[in-house]
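Most newcomers find our protein records easier to grasp once they have seen one. A record pairs a protein's sequence with a compact description of its fold. An example says more than a description, so a record of this kind follows:
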Amino acid sequence: MHLPGTQRFELKSGTGDPAVISYRQCGDTVVIEHTYVPPALRGKGIAAVITQDALLEARRLGWKIVPDCSYVETYIQRNPEFIDVLHQP
């Protein structure tokens, strides 16, 4: 779920804390700062799901992404279909 007011994406699974991707926005450029998955959800592919959701939303909104988060950077390298959302300086 995209929460623009807090500049983050959340994915809830069960009753515990959600997985989160936080970002900061400067116009159409968005810096993805951090990906967090609670310990109880790790190893279940949750980080990949929330990252894909965030990148699809970025594409829909016409954002260009600067992945400051190593997980998101690696995800894009492994999923080149998202290269189009990367910010090209």
